[in-house]
Amino acid sequence: MGSLQTNPPKLVREPLKKGISIDHLEYVDVTPIIGREYPTASLKEMLDAPNADEQLRDLAITICERGVVFFRAPQDDLSVDEQKHITDMLGKLTGRPAENGLHVHPLYNDPNNLPMADGTTDKHIYVINSEAQKKLYATMKDRPAATEPKDLGREWHSDSLFETCPSDFSFLRMQSTPPSGGDTLWVSGYEMYDRLSRPYQRFLESLTATCAQPVFKSACEKGGYSVMSPRGSPLNVDFEFAPQHPVVRTHPVTGWKSLFAGVGLHVSRIDEVTSYEDYMIREYVMRIITRNHDSIARMHWTRGACAIWSNVCTLHAATPDTHLVEGVRTGVRASGIGEVPYLDPASTGRREALGLPKF
Ligand SMILES: [Fe+2]
Q1: 247 secondary structure, DSSP code
Q2: How would you classify residue 94: left for phi > 0, otherwise alpha for psi between -120 and 50, otherwise beta?
Q3: What is the spatial distance between Cα 327 and Cα 323, in angstroms, rounded to a whole number?
Q4: CA distance 75 to 125
Q5: Which of 166, 280, 318, 320 is most enclosed, with most CB atoms within 10 A?
Q6: Got the DSSP string for 30-92?
Q7: Is the pLDDT of residue 154 over 90?
Q8: What is the dihedral of CA 274, 276, 281, 286, to 10 degrees?
Q9: pLDDT at residue 185 in the model
Q10: What are the start-end ranges of the H helices in the chain?
Q11: Do residues 251 and 342 touch, judged by C-beta distance below 8 A?
């Protein structure tokens, strides 16, 4: 008697397969689990190539598989408009909803919004500047002394989680760097999921998290200006900034499950559980991050270097230590807007999909 043949369940979206168009680029993987660094590649050359879209699509799939990529050689010849174009195309070429585009920061109308180096502002560009952060530190000196040692756990986040449709790709270019400090870290959401026991995977898959940022609404009301809307998607018009996202989501490009919204800067509460259970879940997720540093890629920034990452399958954390050194850290970031996050019950973890051992 023959055995009963069953087809594997079909995914909501078929994973994309990478081509060979960027295989000629020199690279080194940052760790076996996460990150890829291109020491010599030029994004400008990629854009100018006759098969630019093919190369950008293969780069996008690489980013979704590796979590984050670094371009180390200074990308000085790349304009801000080209940075925005690349960020937008990475999503467009990998099946993002057609009506979505680049994110617009809710507080773009704030008069303290930082300009770029040429003095202009752009609603699709978020400027990072350590001098502004130093001023922030100066105003914070009168706050009551901390009773606990410094805890940078809250730095971990995925971009624009406060939106109904959060960011898919983010592209940060560092224009100037201090002699040390200001590193950025990325942790693999795929690996965090894979390191859970099966019962705990099932438990976290049953949860959603509310990702509230009430500060945007209150800042606008206090400053007397309006919140930007829409913000990269017709669905990102809500002024409450409190969407509920799945704690575990499926990456639409790879089809792999990722621990997405269990902890960090934008997660205000795990839904439906008690406050102590909320605390336990967050502590547990934070413990997975801090006790599995082989799942983390760390970027020591050099002038002109770039990082492009998938917010679907990584969390990242800035290192706020540049106030300790002289020198300004300035960067410009563009972010795309992806789909409403979903968990596809037919999807699997990365290790299972690739046939890798569990640990
Ligand atoms: Fe960020």
Answers
A1: S
A2: alpha
A3: 9
A4: 17
A5: 166
A6: SSSSS-EEESS--HHHHHHSTTHHHHHHHHHHHHHHHSEEEE-S--TT--HHHHHHHHHHHHH
A7: no
A8: 140
A9: 98
A10: 43-48, 52-66, 80-92, 130-140, 189-194, 198-205, 214-223, 275-290, 350-354
A11: no
pLDDT greater than 60 at residue 25: yes
As a whole number of angstroms, the distance between CA 62 and CA 60 comes to 5
Provide CB contacts within 8 A for 179, sequence distance 6+: 325, 326, 327
Distance 120 CA to ligand 1 centre (A): 22
Task: Give the closest residue to 220 by CA, choosing from 106, 127, 114.
Answer: 106
Which band of pLDDT confidence, cut at 50, 70 and 90, is reported for residue 118?
A: confident
As to burial, measured by CB atoms within 10 angstroms (0-12 exposed, 13-18 middle, 19+ buried), residue 205 is middle
> pLDDT tens digits, residue range 57-82?
999 999 999 999 999 999 999 999 99
Distance 32 CA to ligand 1 centre (A): 23
Q: How many angstroms is it from 10 CA to the middle of ligand 1?
A: 33
Report how far ligand 1's centroid is from the alpha carbon of 157 (Å).
Answer: 6
Identify the structural domains of the chain with CATH numbers, from first to last.
Answer: 28-138+152-354 (3.60.130.10)
Tokens for 284, please give them. Answer: 């547990």
Distance of CA 45 from the midpoint of ligand 1 (Å) = 27
Residues lining ion ligand 1 (Cβ < 5 A) are 159
Tokens 């575990």 correspond to 248
> Which amino acid type is present at position 340?
V
